[in-house]
Write a structure and sequence with these properties.
Helix content is 29%, strand content 23%. It is an alpha/beta fold. Helix 3 packs parallel to helix 4 (97-106) and helix 6 crosses helix 7 (188-211).
């Protein structure tokens, strides 16, 4: 890990660029608003740590009321546990003896759970649990419409639940039900329709498992774009939003109504103007290696007439609209990344800022943790 681009107490204008800035006031409001919304619904909050990959942030979410966090990779879980997080769901299927052995060993240090969607995964997980001398909490993932991972609702999921429940090395704790493709369906009405259909599948599948004599006390899932819908359905006991703490340009394109807390943009890429042509363009030092572009270009924050229009490895080109001010050479600007999760993975540090001053430096604990 490299040295941070700032020091505590430094004015934000002096922070070196590119840097990952976190508006602490907006971040804290986002954390509190989600926790309160889930508490009012009588459910549990398990935020997704793949968005921030930070033990410091995970612990703050737990202090605000979260029961734990989830992540996608064993290496992410290892970094979070090393940072003091005591309850981690790897909300993904883990394949490979080496990874499974690491997962099982980690269960000696914290409460670790993971997902399966096929019989060979169950058998391999059993073997790893036996080698490590642990009993692993296991969820069956259900395909609720995202068509990525997950056993099909109904009989296929019920059969896997029975297999897990019958295993002396595993403990069946419930269902993982995340509709990933619904998160950025722009219209609320369409997202509501998708989650309503998923809720029907979940209720029927859960009922079948219970009718087979297997307790099914947990259905977990949901994301920032849908979690109020899962809560309102009553079919989910726990929700897993992640991006709500930051919000990015892509989520900014979604339609939200009064069912969602008023989440704010809190995460920015801090960048410097390194070249300019008056009235035409400015070039900044934040390109492909400072921000993710899979969900589109970053937004130039609160700068009228500036649009990020082209990118290369180390450069971003801003178009200056007619009549707009061309930023000065050396001027620093805020960018709202298109997709917060992979943007975070490009940086070593969060630079937490309040009232124009650096207040916190938090390492991206699981940066590069992709195995």
């Amino acid at each position: 890990m490299r040295e941070p681009p700032a020091t505590i107490g430094m004015p934000v204008v002096d922070v070196d660029t590119p840097a990952l800035l976190l508006d602490l006031d907006a971040f804290e409001r986002n954390v509190a608003r989600a926790a309160e919304a889930v508490r009012r619904a009588g459910a549990r909050l398990r935020p997704h740590a793949k968005s921030h990959k930070s033990a410091d942030i995970a612990l703050r979410q737990v202090m605000a009321g979260a029961v734990g966090v989830c992540c996608q990779k064993v290496s992410e879980a290892e970094a979070l546990v090393a940072g003091g997080v005591r309850d981690v769901l790897i909300s993904n299927e883990i394949v490979g003896a080496g990874k499974l052995d690491r997962l099982a060993r980690l269960a000696h240090e914290a409460r670790i759970s993971t997902c399966v969607d096929a019989l060979p995964q169950v058998e391999a997980l059993e073997q790893a649990a036996t080698r490590a001398g642990v009993r692993l909490d296991t969820l069956v993932e259900v395909n609720v419409g995202g068509n990525r991972c997950g056993a099909e609702p109904g009989a296929a999921t019920q059969a896997l639940a029975r297999r897990v429940a019958d295993s002396p090395q595993l403990r069946f704790v419930g269902l993982q039900a995340y509709h990933g493709s619904a998160q950025h369906t722009r219209a609320v009405a369409e997202r509501r329709e998708k989650i309503a259909r998923a809720a029907e599948w979940i209720r029927a599948t859960r009922a079948g498992i219970v009718a087979d004599g297997i307790p099914c006390d947990l259905v977990t899932g949901a994301g920032t774009g849908t979690f109020p819908l899962e809560l309102a359905s009553g079919a989910w006991d726990e929700v897993q939003p992640g991006s709500y703490i930051f919000m990015d340009a892509d989520y900014g394109r979604d339609e939200f109504d009064d069912h969602w807390p008023p989440f704010e943009h809190s995460l920015f890429v801090w960048t410097t103007v390194m070249s300019r042509v008056e009235g035409a363009r400015a070039v900044v030092d934040a390109g492909l290696k400072a921000s993710a572009f899979d969900s589109g270009m970053p937004l130039v924050w609160q700068q009228h007439g500036l649009e990020y229009v082209n990118v290369s490895d180390e450069h971003g080109v801003l178009r200056v609209a007619p009549g707009a001010r061309t930023p000065a050479l050396g001027e620093k600007l805020l960018l709202v990344p298109g997709h917060c999760d992979p943007t975070v993975n490009l940086h070593d540090w969060f630079v937490g800022v309040r009232h124009g001053v650096v207040e916190a430096l938090w390492p991206v604990s699981a940066r590069g943790a992709i195995r």
